[in-house]
Amino acid sequence: MAILGSLIKTAIELKDSFTTEESPIASQKNVLKKLLEESKETAFGKYYAFSELLETENLQKSFAASIPYHDYHKMKEDWWCQTQKGKADITWSGKPQYFALSSGTTGKSSKRIPVTEAMIEAIRETGIKQVGALSNFNLPSEFFEKEIMMLGSSTNLNKRDEFLEGEISGISASNIPFWFQGYYKPGEEIAQIDDWDERVATIAKNAKNWDIGALSGIPSWMELMLKEVISYHQVDHIHEVWPNLQVYTSGGVAFQPYEKSFNALLGKPITVIDTYLASEGFLAFQTRPDTTAMRLVTDNGIYFEFVPFEPDYIQEDGSLVEEAPSLTLEEVEEGKDYVVIISTVSGAWRYIIGDTIAFTDVSKAEIKITGRTKFFLNVVGSQLSVNKMEKAVQEMENEFDIKIPEFTVAAVKIDGEYHHHWYLGTDATIDEKKLANRLDEALSEANKNYGVARNKSLHGVKVTTVPPEVFHEWSGKNKKKGGQVKMEKVMKEEKFKEWEDFVASMS
Q: By C-alpha distance, which of 353, 423, 358 is closest to 385?
């Protein structure tokens, strides 16, 4: 079988060497033109005069000036509600076959985001490109013979009227190419199990029957699965079960906050490759080993715009003020945080997905995820982004030699004065006041606005430690266990009260 691995690796390398790519900037201009041409006869395209836009000299600027920003609620109320009722040609030509369910990080009701055949094909093509990029990571030939564990939501999609519904990871897994099915684990039967705990228990039971070379999934849920496998087989680390495990592709959230706790489950180092798969599409993936940044998919069904992530442009619910300026890929700068805006082959137009990114290399269109627009703590002018919070938490991990894979924070009043109350997910036993003081210092050093707030309206920091499992159970309580789930890093007071009551019930 080593010969087969060599053949596969050689084929990937040859394909990669003969593939010529246009610049990301040029690709984006072409993608926007194709999107408008394909949808100019839809209800949305006629309303916003796509045919006329296509005749303008500067299509990107004309597009941005003509179409308002849309969050999910605006897109649904104005347009997708008709698609959901079965009407064709609303925001994209024809009708979608699927709706991706996404409850996001707040609220219990699921969003229903259309997933067209064109988007399924775009996700599939991007997945193939990602496999092709593996040739850059100097993996041995034997790796290409091993199986891949894809841990997402259930592939047992629900039928609703004429549509199939599920999380995007389940929809994608149910549409894997036929040639890949022999490599795919846990396999169709197990992947269809709806109950997360039952599915993971079944994976653990069957784990030694598989020769897993790669893992793919959200870090927090992947950790839980690995712990279950390790516990079931009574071993010290996952490499005692899967000795040939060499690659982990993360997805949807930054891996760095989970790095320390994740590595503790391994017997030897593995290659970590970041990906960016959202309910709205496959946005980016890491293409080379000498960076942790991901390359935006600029040539495959998604047009990107970027709004500077500044307090003046962000409303309390995470949406944008209408006058917020958008930048093209040609106009962005490295090192600055931007809100991601996308227009796609699923008929999302100038759509705010809620993520923030920063460019690490504009020429290569490489980015890193820095947070969520809703996870922006600015009640008393502290202007804390998730990226700054995570860096402070990582400093604490290193300084105290502990693991903190999860956290959440809220601005609350204690004795009539505002404090930041942090809950840190850790199994370590350490003085909470000592943690609070160090966290406060780290944030003051990293963010001058936070330092100013601490000298005025923000009167203190409180830390409460809880086991990381409490965060997972909270997600389960809110019907969000497993799949494409992002734990809310910042809570408003009302939600925080629910969280505190839940924590109390777990003790």
A: 358
pLDDT bucket at 149, cuts 50 / 70 / 90: very high
Give, as one character, the DSSP assignment of residue 208: G
Of 286, 125, 149, nearest in space to 221 by CA: 149
Q: Name the amino acid, one letter, at 53.
A: L
Angle value at C-alpha 195, between 189 and 196, nearest 5 degrees? 95
Beta bridge partners of 359: 334, 367
Report yes or no: 254 and 390 within 8 Å, Cβ to Cβ. Answer: yes
Residue range 386-506 in CATH 3.90.930: no
Query: For residue 350, what are the CA distances in angstroms to 386, 394, 434?
Result: 23, 34, 45
Q: List every span in the chain annotated with CATH 3.30.300.
A: 386-506
What residues does CATH 3.40.50.12780 cover in the chain?
1-374
Answering whether pTM is above 0.90, one says no
Per-residue pLDDT tens digits for 183-241: 889 888 898 888 888 999 999 999 999 999 999 888 888 998 999 999 999 999 999 99
With beta carbons less than 8 A apart as the criterion, state whether 318 and 311 touch. Answer: no
325, 294 Cβ separation under 8 angstroms = no
Burial class from Cβ neighbours inside 10 Å (0-12, 13-18, 19+) for residue 185 reads: buried
Instruction: Report pLDDT digits (tens) over 272-313.
Output: 998 998 889 999 999 999 888 999 999 999 999 999 988 788
Q: Are strands 417-425 and 458-466 parallel, antiparallel or unpaired?
A: parallel
Do 50 and 67 form a contact (C-beta atoms < 8 A)? no
- Strand 147-151 with 184-185, pairing: parallel
Strand partners, 99: 114, 165
Q: What angle do CA 494, 500, 505 make, to 5 degrees?
A: 130
How far apart (Å, rounded) are the C-alpha atoms in residues 441 and 400?
14
Burial 324-346 (b: 16+ CB within 10 A, else e): bebbbbeebeeeebbbbbbbbbb
Q: At what angle do helices 196-206 and 219-232 cross, to 10 degrees?
A: 50
Helix (H) or strand (E) holding 65: helix 59-66
Fold of 1-374: Rossmann fold (3.40.50)
CA atoms of 276 and 149, how far apart (whole Å): 17
**Closest to 169 (Cα-Cα) out of 71, 266, 282:** 282
Which residues fall within 8 angstroms of residue 465, CB to CB, at 6 or more apart? 423, 424, 425, 426, 428, 430, 432, 435
Question: Residue 115 — φ and ψ, nearest 5°?
Answer: -125, 105
Cα gap 267→239, rounded to integer Å: 5
Does the N-terminal peptide bond of residue 186 adopt cis geometry, omega within 30 degrees of 0?
Answer: yes
The rounded distance, in Å, linking the Cα atoms of 390 and 393 is 5
